[in-house]
## 1
Amino acid sequence: MFAGKIKINKHLDLSRLPAHIAIIMDGNGRWATRRGLPRNMGHKAGCENLKRIVQHIYDLGIKYATFYTFSTENWKRPKEEIDGIFSIVRDYLDEDGDSFLERGARVVVSGDYTKLPSDLVDSISRIVEKTKNCDKFTLNLAINYGGRDEILRGVNKAIESGEKLESVDDFSKLLYSSELPDPDFIIRTSGEMRISNFMLWQMAYSEFYFTKTYWPSFSEKDLQLALIDFQRRKRRYGSI
Ligand code: IPE
Ligand code: IPE
Ligand code: MG
């Protein structure tokens, strides 16, 4: 991974990239169905694309990236599909572990990954431990993640601590992503115009980008076009 051979669009300003980009990788199933393939082939292709896009985000010099990989609601899917997704993610982490380390890329997780199958829990724990001191780039995998579940856990932690929270930042520190800045830019592929329980707390001032392209077809070029769109926006944070 991390080849760094992609041409940069001349309209993209590399000095004004988001610090944290988050992607709702949607449309794997429809990508496969349209090709007459089983849905899990779509997840396989989606994972190949995850590798490509992670590499490109790293090459561009963006520091933080979150990818919505499996939601707390995705347990409603057939067991065969769920097992397929988990084994694809496990293979990715097992195969790419060393290359993350070599590139100074840290892997962290949002979501209760201890509830996943034990082989995947092992793979995740291994890569998180192995890369914990890397500081060039952070890949946050949102897996068994739900925004409401995360907020509920935060509330319970606050109650357990017995101390009143004084600020919004105090609450942010109780969330999975406490070490990451809030996402500046959130992309959702596949044409759905919804959030599906992703980073509800953190997205207060995120910029959004929706594209009809299914995730496995979302290319480095598409990412650059999205980033150019991001750079055209004026973020006001309530000010004028
Ligand atoms: C996103 O693709 C991947 C996961 C939710 C795990 P989908 O599997 O949701 O693909 P569509 O939306 O059915 O096409
Ligand atoms: C969101 O996609 C979850 C992930 C991309 C992991 P879904 O496909 O689960 O969302 P809905 O069901 O269309 O809202
Ligand atoms: Mg979907």
## 2
Amino acid sequence: MDAQRRKRINLYKKIIVAFVLATILIPLILCVALFMQVGALKKEVSNLNQLRNEYYTKFEEINAALQESLALKADAEAADNQENADLEQIADVSKVTQGLEDELVDEAVVTTITDKAVITDNTTEEKNTTDEAEVVVKQAKPAKEIKGTVYLTFDDGPGANTHTILDILAEYDVKATFFVNGKDAETYADEYRRIVAEGHTLAMHSYTHNYSKVYASVDAFMDDTIRLRNHLYDITGVVCDIYRFPGGSSNTVTKINIRRFAEALDAEGIVYFDWNVASNDATNPILSVEEIYDNVISGVVNRDMSVVLMHDLKDKVTTVEALPLILDYLKTNGYEVLALDKDVTPVQHVKLGS
Ligand code: ZN
């Protein structure tokens, strides 16, 4: 009886111990398992955070680059528009001036002839009067033989078309001016050197031709210009002293007064040239051969001295095609075609000190 009772008590004890152990151990094990899981999740969250930050940084960089390229595009478009607007204005003014000049010249010739005729009439017979008048007309003719001087200028080269342009200029035996940019010396050494070797004027435009950088400050502007001058000297041995502002001196891109840049150029002995005839070949899409030809010829015929703006750029193929037609006209109509030098009175939209 006793033994049986003790056995039962032992069994109860075992059951109680097992129950106590179970209620302690099971939550403990569960707790440990949960802690491990929380740890793993924390690690995963921090990995995701890091990844998100990396993507965010990349996005910022791409966005910044995009904004910069949009700003540059806007700058370039603004400069192009300004170039064209200025040229139209200059062309109008010049047409009016030329018209007045022509009238004055005509009047002067008529007056001279009349005066001579009157004097002769008083002293000799009628026949002699006619002779005198003829002589005066004949004397006036040779002066009209050279109708004008044309300086063809090519901006933004050298490039894929430079050799073809040089071939055409050689064929017509005329000289031009190349306002070049800072292109890779190894790729374009031949073009730079050929411009010089064939007697054309190697002139400076811009090393980077990046409006935002070039016009950021007077120092940045001169750094770009001197860098280009050194680049050209290293390749050709020529110290260039003629310059053309990207967008012209009348560009609206720069926030700094253009005269400050002009003074800095002057201090380095550099003269800048704008243009008074535009081929308008910088427009997009490109103009036809006929349009470029008409733009150049209609500008040239009104002037004694023309500085013609054209571009030496890969996609400006109609410029190259129009060139022989333009030269045909100039040569058969009494124009001399020359390269710019420092002795030529510069055509400047904004003049230093004005
Ligand atoms: Zn340019």
